[in-house]
């Protein structure tokens, strides 16, 4: 009985799924940052807002942008990992004799 070889693309699917999840988180963080920017602009334009209100809203906006940037960097690294896993998977299944023909 021959031993079944593991699917070299199995790990790639998990890595790509992780990228999709990170993309969704990043996109949500972008929407949150955009909403924080709208609140900041409204606070600055308000006749009743104090400088303390403006400062607090600005800090909230900066925090949201920092969260977005962090997720964007994490997504970028995850995509690099996905490309590496794809290369590994392809190299695992390709036959060396076929590479000379390519």
Q: Which key features would you list for this structure?
A:
102 residues, mainly alpha, 3 helices, rod-shaped
Summarize the structure.
This protein has 102 residues and is an all-alpha fold.
Blueprint (SSEs and pairs):
Elements: H1 10-45, H2 51-93, H3 96-99
Helix pairs in contact: 1-2
Description of the structure:
Helix content is 81%, strand content 0%. It is mainly alpha-helical. α1 (10-45) runs antiparallel to α2.
Radius of gyration: 23 Å
Total beta strand runs: 0
Average pLDDT, rounded to a whole number, is 90
The SSE string, one letter per element, is HHH
- Structural class call reads mainly alpha
Question: Hey, roughly how much beta strand do the residues contain?
Answer: under 5%
Main β-sheet, in a few words? Answer: none
Low-confidence stretches: none
**End-to-end distance:** 34 Å
Total helical elements: 3
